[in-house]
Amino acid sequence: MFPPINEQMDLIKRGVFEIIPEEDLVKKLEHSIKTKKPLNIKLGCDPSRPDLHLGHSVVLRKLRQFQDLGHQATLIIGDFTGMIGDPSGKSKTRPSLTLAETRKNGQSYFEQATKILSSQRVTMQYNSEWLDKMSFADVIRLASKYTVARMLERDDFTIRYKAGEPISVHEFLYPLAQAMDSVAIHADVELGGTDQKFNLLVGRDIQREFGQEPQVTLMMPILVGTDGVEKMSKSLDNYIGVSDTPKDIYGKTLSIPDKLIYQYFELATDVSKKELLEIKKSLDNPKINPRDMKRTLARTFVRMYHSQEAATGAEEEFDRIFVEKSIPDDIEEFTVNAPMTITALIAEAKLATSKGEARRLIDQGGVSIDGERVSDPNALLPDKSEFILKVGKRRFLKVKKSLTYTNS
Fold first, then answer.
1. Residues 346-368: pLDDT tens digits?
2. CATH-assigned architecture of domain 5-220
3. What residue ranges do the domains of the chain occupy?
4. Are 373 and 365 in contact (CB under 8 A)?
5. CA distances (Å), 250 to each of 134, 264, 312, in order?
6. Spelled out in words, what is the top-level CATH class assigned to the domain 332-407?
7. What is the rounded CA–CA span in Å between residue 288 and residue 229?
8. Residue 380's beta-bridge partner residues?
9. pTM: predicted TM-score of the whole model, two decimal places
10. How many other C-beta atoms are found inside a 10 Å radius of the C-beta of residue 153?
11. Cα–Cα distance between 318 and 320 in angstroms, integer?
């Protein structure tokens, strides 16, 4: 039913930052093989960010690997803890959500996560199922099992405490509540990013307090965004979304710095260990252009989240736009009824969030009409019945003037 220990550990350890403790994981796997019972692998899901990107896929892909080895995946949607707001890595309290908001976001998370996970060995549970039933006496007993000194060992709490930043008592309850998730489902292994280390370890301690065998914690590296500097984040606009169009996935992938190519292959794709070795050799070969490797990576991502046909089409369209300097086939049309500035057109067509942003795009050289760069934000539309407006690297618009335009 299960592959041998060495084969399982070889796959599990791929790309992993830390396993605590690794010897316990080996023992759990040995017991799993002996009893023919799959391990219960837990992943807590933050319902405050329902739009998944490749950064989220790193830990989801690890969970999928456990599934492929025959183990059970359990997604814990933090609808109850989402009302607290996890302060991990934050310099201030994160805004809490309503239960209805967390439920809606949680369903969206699950639908996107199953693009990566097998639907055969996965269950989803909301932690309000057990946390909402705890009485105040239950909470007091739980809180008595951990000290304030231990809580202040967490880096973000320590920094805020020393800086005189407020720390609400309810924030101390978050890692304890997350730990109760592990108790409720008898988790054998919990996955998370390196920024979740404290919370994952609290889970081990609390399981022990409740007489359970403590879970093994497995931490994955944090994926750097397309800017090559910051953690991948939608708010920083340095992300590649798992629900992005094939065109956007392909184009965004080609924009990453060369230094990220191997990490993206290792953490965010399903290429084999043998292929990874070949990729590393190619990247170390000065005769091979890293851009070729990025094109392979881009096709891989589009194939994973769409199809092989979509990957081929996205690459062909990219080449038409950027190599052959042509425009895409499915360009959107926009009709104008009266004279206006190019700045106003960009804002009205929703190619920028405001006129101020449109002006910045023009000042930065990111706007062109029929291939000619626009330099004056106050310029009126050209004296043409229709033209192609390009904003940024990938946004095109075919602008047509209505019959009433010339009469204005």
1. 998 888 888 888 898 898 888 88
2. 3-Layer(aba) Sandwich (3.40)
3. 5-220, 246-323, 332-407
4. yes
5. 47, 13, 10
6. alpha beta
7. 25
8. 341
9. 0.75
10. 11
11. 5
